[in-house]
Amino acid sequence: MNTNKKFFRILLLSLLFIGGGMFTATAQSEIKELSEEAIEFSNLPKAVQDAFKNSDYAKWEIEEVEKVETDKGTMYELEVENEDETYYELYFSPKGELVLKREESHSDGDDDHR
Questions:
Q1: pTM over 0.85
Q2: pLDDT band (50, 70, 90) for residue 106
Q3: Are 20 and 56 in contact (CB under 8 A)?
Q4: Owning domain of residue 82
Q5: Do 43 and 90 lie in a common domain?
Q6: What are the beta bridge partners of residue 77?
Q7: How many helices (H) and strands (E) does the chain have?
Q8: How far apart are CA 104 and CA 88, in angstroms?
């Protein structure tokens, strides 16, 4: 493996670990949703429910819950919003790990997210 490729690979892996398991901005763009299905919070795996309830977002309003098939495997997406109208998509692994947090704009034309 050439030195530049090896360095980049080590750097990317380091960023993933430093981020507490969250994907970096570079890796976020690599996640591709293949399909999604709306589900109820009560139908999430217990590990995901517990992780959300113990997260910094537990008091935020849940707008939508989806089971998402991605090129990285199954994830569970919770769309949440706080009283300041900050809106995030939180992606959890089936084991309850928060693997991606993506802030979303309210200018998507959806009346719920202005």
A1: no
A2: low
A3: no
A4: 32-113
A5: yes
A6: 66, 91
A7: 3, 5
A8: 6
